[in-house]
Write a structure and sequence with these properties.
This protein is mainly α. It has a single domain (13-278), classed as Up-down Bundle (Rhopdopsin 7-helix transmembrane proteins), CATH 1.20.1070.10. It has eleven helices and no strands. The longest helix is centred in the N-terminal third of the chain and has 32 residues, at 15-46. The protein is globular and about 55 Å long. Residues 19-255 form the DUF7702 domain.
Length: 282
């Protein structure tokens, strides 16, 4: 048996897997630094929240953005693999769970980018070109995503295939809904959205084929043969269907948000007056 296809009964992590973990650590550390810087400037320049604008709040929203959370999850999972060549069973379960949980921030970021596309060119809270019912749908599909992933992870841990199957089916249904939603936005709001907002939706649609591969990897991780195991499985599959797909999706989504909320530089930023600041007595 090759080092890239170790069986689940073996307790050592292959050299190839450790190399992938090192690459993952480096790549997502860079992504985290880049997204933190860009997101902070976007938060400060546009500030779509009702709370009073401040530097700590901008840093908080930037650090705990969806791409930021994904980066932190990937850094944590790769650090566990690098830390020891003979991981315990609990570490293997945790690493496998993090591989699955990492899909939810990507789906959440799709939701947030779509919402931002309706506010392209606008400053402050509100001012969306989308009706309230559509905004509710953009927010709403996040919840079944979390539910589906939780079902898949819990089903895998407690060895209840029924839960995992339910989670996988639900995730596929939600992804199909997102594809339909984005396709409808591209047709229905072609003349309603500003050019920057429409381009943001278009760029988001470019991420869907790669996100589909990542969704299928989640399903195969739960129910596929041992070669799809994130710890002992084939490293080429992990690198191509997992790591590479996430990097590509993150790149498209960051580009989409950069189009919807362009940054012209520090000199081009201005402080946005929030609703709280406009009310007297605050």
């Amino acid at each position: 048996m090759s080092s890239d296809t170790l069986s689940p009964t073996e307790t050592s992590v292959s050299v190839s897997k450790r190399n992938i973990a090192i690459a993952e650590l480096v790549i997502f550390s860079l992504i985290h630094i880049i997204q933190l810087s860009v997101r902070y400037m976007q938060e400060w320049k546009y500030w779509h929240h009702n709370k009073r604008q401040s530097i700590p709040r901008c840093l908080f929203y930037s650090w705990f953005s969806m791409i930021g959370l994904l980066s932190q999850i990937r850094i944590a999972s790769s650090a566990m693999i690098i830390s020891t060549s003979n991981p315990t069973e609990s570490m293997l379960i945790a690493e496998s769970s993090l591989q699955s949980v990492g899909l939810s921030p990507l789906m959440f970021e799709v939701s947030l980018v779509l919402l931002r596309s309706g506010q392209a060119g606008e400053h402050g809270p509100g001012n969306s070109k989308y009706p309230k019912s559509l905004r509710i749908m953009m927010h709403g599909f996040r919840f079944p995503v979390v539910f589906a992933i939780v079902l898949g992870v819990v089903g895998s841990i407690i060895k209840m295939p029924a839960l995992g199957k339910a989670g996988s089916i639900l995730l596929i249904v939600v992804f199909a809904f997102v594809c339909g939603l984005i396709s409808w936005l591209l047709v229905k709001f072609r003349t309603t959205l500003p050019l920057a907002g429409y381009r943001a939706v278009l760029l988001t649609s470019c991420a869907l084929p790669f996100l589909l591969v990542r969704v299928m990897y989640f399903v195969l991780l739960e129910f596929g043969p041992p070669k799809f195991n994130p710890v002992y499985g084939n490293v080429a599959i992990l690198a191509s269907m997992g790591l590479l797909m996430e990097i590509i999706v993150v790149s498209w989504l960051m580009a989409a948000r950069a189009v919807a909320e362009p940054i012209s530089g520090f000199m081009g930023m201005k402080r946005i007056t929030s609703i709280d600041e406009e009310q007297p007595g605050n």
